[in-house]
Amino acid sequence: MRRLGSVQQKVPCVFLTEVRNEPSRKRDCQQFQVVATENVNPAALESDIHCAVATEKIDGTCCYVTTYKGEPYLWARLDRKPTKQADKRFKKHQYLQKTCKGFVWNVDEDFREVPESWIAAHRVQHENGHPVPDEHGHIPGWVPVDHTNKQYCWHTSVVNYDSAVALVLKTHGEDEGLLEIVSIPLADLMEQTLELIGTNVNGNPYGLGSKKYPVHVLVPHGVLRIRNPPPVDFQQLYSWFQECQEGRVEGIVWHCDDGTLIKIHRHHLGLKWPVGDSFLNTRPVVVHVDEKPDPDASEKDLFKSFSSINGKLFSCIQDIQFEP
């Protein structure tokens, strides 16, 4: 199986979009929403979207594995965002012009500071040696996940830097209908992007774990392929999300042969997310984690917890619980 594209930039919608003057279904404080038209995005056609690999869009927070201080490391997504005043100007322009394009930024003054270890994402444009924002007003980037930073405690729960491994949810090598949770060397994940999902991420749309015993895992982008994807047609996609069990997902990401990524989100079609009984929770999952945890590790150490149920098969990932 070829490695599919990594998520470094904002992924465009498969359809051309328009801004409507009504509250966003996706962001509570946003007084407009971006919706899909029925016109296929020319960028999707140029990348031969009809021959692309369709995969499930996973609702979590984006991560990246690359080198830090000479070792494979997990990095968290940290976009450099505008200050409040600059963002107000940008939102006003977007509201009045019905587009993000044409807004002029002062990069030195309009953007918040980021840690020294921050790096810009791949393909971010630079001017005079400095990264510049994309059309959405962000400068995509990454920051290394350190155990000393409590802001990233859920990220650090899925990596063990002493053993240089990560907890990953993927399809089973011999049965695509079966999921498995495994510990994978970080070196094997180099230059890949993944989605961190779990109890304390994005409102936990998949219902994983509990407050007392949280469950988190990394899901490599592109690993959950859609077996019977609908055609790239507005009405057929709308019906698929509404009527098919496999359509009970946040969205679709198409991985094109030229490396381009294209997506559709349920919100683009005016459909709600999350939904009960998501497709992810219809698939059985087996645990293959046999790590030797630090004897001084907390009872809530995820590697220790998953090792205690090594070899067990569950009807779905939501059924995995660590309560004694």
Automatic annotation (TrEMBL):
Required cofactor names: Mn(2+); Mg(2+)
GO molecular function per UniProt: ATP binding; RNA ligase (ATP) activity
Entry annotated with the keyword Nucleotidyltransferase: no
Enzyme Commission number(s) from the entry: 6.5.1.3
GO BP field: response to reactive oxygen species; RNA repair
The entry's keywords: ATP-binding, Ligase, Nucleotide-binding, RNA repair
Pfam families (alphabetical): RLIG1
InterPro entries tied to this protein: RLIG1
Substrates-to-products reaction catalysed: ATP + (ribonucleotide)n-3'-hydroxyl + 5'-phospho-(ribonucleotide)m = (ribonucleotide)n+m + AMP + diphosphate
Function per UniProt: Functions as an RNA ligase, in vitro. The ligation reaction entails three nucleotidyl transfer steps. In the first step, the RNA ligase reacts with ATP in the absence of nucleic acid to form a covalent ligase-AMP intermediate and release pyrophosphate. In step 2, the ligase-AMP binds to the nucleic acid and transfers the adenylate to the 5'-PO4 terminus to form an adenylylated intermediate. In step 3, the RNA ligase directs the attack of the 3'-OH on the 5'-phosphoanhydride linkage, resulting in a repaired 3'-5' phosphodiester and release of AMP.
Name under which the protein is recorded: RNA ligase 1
Species, as recorded: Sinocyclocheilus anshuiensis
Gene: rlig1
